[in-house]
Amino acid sequence: MTKIDIISGFLGAGKTTFIKKMLKEAFRGEQVVLIENEFGEIGIDGGFLKESGIEIREMNSGCICCSLVGDFGKSLKEVVGTYHPDRILIEPSGVGKLSDVIKAVQDVQEEIDAELNSFTTVVDAMKCRLYRNNFGEFFSNQVEYAGAIILSRTDKAKPEKVEESYQILRELNEKAPIITTPIAELPGDKLLETMEHSKTLEEELLAEIMCPECGGHHEHGESCGHDHHHEGQGCCHEGDGHNHEEEGHSHGEGCGHHHEEHGHSHGEGCGHHHEEHEHSHEEHADSCGCGHDHHHHDHGHHHADEVFSSWGRETIKTYTKEEIEHILKALESDESFGVILRAKGMVAGENDWIYFDMVPEEHEVRSGAAEYTGRLCVIGSNLNEEKLADLFGIK
Known about the structure:
By secondary structure, the protein is α/β, with parallel strands linked by helices.
């Protein structure tokens, strides 16, 4: 099965630089076909990328999203039938609509041995506001429908400019991961992982604290009576510790997100579905059959997101290990922040990246690999979100 990846982006955003990096690092050893669609008569990047040994099929005099939809479908069939590639990269015109490019692929993927794998948009951090103000829906559409967003040139832009651009992108797309770390600092496989099926820290932590057998939460080290393994996080784990089916999608299918159950196609929504857990349900207390009283609904047992609330942020802020240690000790000792069950994050440090992990009366701070952006999440009950934001120095 051929994977189809769409690399979108406004004119001059850095798509070609990104594609070169992915060809060298993430797609090495694969047979890759690049389909370019330049706006105008001459494809400007064709000769540049032919040096990499990539087949170029330039489609000029229009764009995939309008006059060439029919030709595009025919071209895809020809490419798959002729080359049987492992992967097809589609680089649409910088002035096209990503939603229409996605739809053009969906319209023909049932007829060919190929599947839509990812759809990523590259945005210049220094021109984000300018493009939003001047190009309206042509810019916003590429952001709204992106499965992942790469904020390019963050190493050249001032931090306040990066933050401004991040906020603009987040207003347009609430869920897609926004890669703010300079792509030169991230390996290709990390970028591909983020493009395909990145999960929020909140989803990861809720999966960790939810028992896959009874659907409930058990205190650190306690058992619900089921025969399964407990890891040190107070959670039942099998394999990687995530129950993918309960999260509403299965990885390895399509682009890593299960879209049909969400009631929309790639061409109709943002391409993602994540449950909202920014609330706590204060229904009545009952027992899930594992010996613990919890607040939950009437249906016999509860899920972790019905018991706890969460607070999380993405941030480009730089921390020291001493600052993170101070923050975690405050969360452990000061009940005014709420009852903290779990805290986890990865943030930029002065010289490397800092990873932290906390359960009650226990925490760890260590160095780790660069992440696509700084992320942190706190899960518990009665959380004081304003105090948590102040503690982490986030507005």
